[in-house]
Amino acid sequence: MKIISGTAKNLELNIPKGTAVRPTAVIARKSIFESVGDWDGLTVLDLFSGSGVLGLEAASRGAVKIYFSEKSSINCSCIRENILKLTNAGVKCTAKVIEGDSKKFHLNFPELHNKIDIIFADPPYELTTNIIDTLFLSEKFVSWAGSTLLILETSDKYPPGLNPNFLKMWRINSIKKHGKSRFYFLKPENNL
User: Dihedral through CA 191, CA 28, CA 2, CA 69, nearest 10?
Assistant: First the structure.
């Protein structure tokens, strides 16, 4: 797996061995990142980081602060190794790996309220329903997110827009489909 653009373009990244990590495909990553456009100076949160490829790609493209939230210690070690590779390739950013439950990140870091520009959320597909019900339908999380752009990756089998409560809390700006994955570009409704 490689970084596809920016300062660390073509840098080969480590992938955690022996885990069920599902890195976002290159074509999907390219589409997502080009949709946002300019990454310079952004603060990014990569929830359910896995290999950390989304946050690492953001750093290579100019994001200045990246938070990685991942509960697997094996995955966290791999992300730290990849951050070192990026740093050695000339990427300048502040990166912090937080080992813990991504569903509780907003509770553990209240000082980041409305200070994250983009949140990536790529939970294991089999947990999507649970994550939507416990995190994205939480008024505390929506309020904490502030004016952020949330990019949610799901299986094409679970469109969150079918849940009427979800649509009360999140505005779907766009949907991109790549293979069996869907990417929802969301904004909290309380910030319209």
Answer: 40
3-class SS of residue 80: helix
Where are the domains positioned within the chain?
A: 26-191
CA distance 185 to 182: 10
| Tens place of pLDDT per residue across the chain (192 aa) | 899 999 999 999 988 776 555 566 678 888 889 999 899 999 999 999 988 999 999 999 999 999 999 999 999 999 999 999 999 999 999 999 999 999 999 999 999 999 999 999 988 878 888 888 889 889 999 999 999 999 998 887 776 555 778 888 889 899 888 888 889 999 988 653
Look at residues 117, 143, 128 and name the one whose alpha carbon lies nearest to residue 183.
Answer: 128
Q: Per the confidence metrics, is the pTM higher than 0.85?
A: yes
Question: What phi and psi values does residue 32 have, to the nearest 5 degrees?
Answer: -60, -50
Residue 101 Cα distances to 51, 70, 120, 123, 156, angstroms: 15, 7, 15, 11, 24
The CATH code of the domain at 26-191 is: 3.40.50.150
DSSP 135-156: IIT-HHHHHHHTT-EEEEEEET
